Amino acid sequence: MQVQPISFVDSVFRLARLPEGGLPEIAFAGRSNVGKSSLLNCLINRKNFVKVSSRPGKTQSLNFYLVGEDLHLVDLPGYGYAKVDKKLQAKWQALVTTYLETRVNLRCVVLIIDLRHALKDLDRMLAGWLQSQAIPWLPVYTKIDKLSRNEQNRQAQRLDTALGISSTERLLFSAKTREGREQLLARLDAFLVPQTPDDGRSDEPDQDEMRPVESNHLVDLSTAKKAL
Fold first, then answer.
1. Residue 175 CB burial class (10 angstroms; 0-12, 13-18, ≥19)
2. Which of 60, 97, 210, 215 is 20 to 30 Å apart from 19, CA to CA?
3. Max intra-chain CA distance, the chain
4. Cβ–Cβ under 8 Å, residues 109 and 135
5. From the CB of residue 33, how many other CB atoms can be counted at a distance below 10 Å?
6. Does residue 225 lie within any of the structural domains?
7. What's the pLDDT at 53?
8. Alpha-carbon torsion, ordered 157, 96, 181, 162, to 10 deg
9. 162-197: per-residue pLDDT in tens?
10. What is the total count of domains within the chain?
């Protein structure tokens, strides 16, 4: 997967502003302060290209980046910051939920999780919801440079168990040391392989084509316990 050249496209606050054209999209989700911007900057090999919010939970838009001429990377708003206004939280939830449910050209959601901590309720809920909606997703455990190799293995096993996945279904990553970067690029490449029409995701959707919205909406994130 080539990540150059890359350019910023738009910050989307309303579904009507979503980019047209049907390019495949890979979305990146995670809690506030999980290191999502650092991961993206490492992935695209550009320092500070993806800006870190000046205040946790402040970003409420879907930020689109164009890779070459044939792929969008989508930076989703961070979630789980307790001080975010409830109205803003509800607005974010509605925007992101509908985007994830209906975007036919969405190829994968990269769920970024801090390896140092136990699985948070909101991460568990989002992972379960993505599975229930049959949305392809890839867990990436970040900040592995903060732990010894033995600690990495132990904590990764705990997160695997909590998510109900095997070690082959996730990746370990460090934006600081760049460990895991090439593996992540290769895994994302696999999600971009052309898919057959009967799998529910057409390679060339109409400009405004959307997947049918299921009745099982993303559970209200505000009802989850605070993950401290």
1. buried
2. 215
3. 49
4. yes
5. 15
6. no
7. 66
8. 0
9. 999 999 999 999 999 999 999 999 999 999 987 665
10. 1
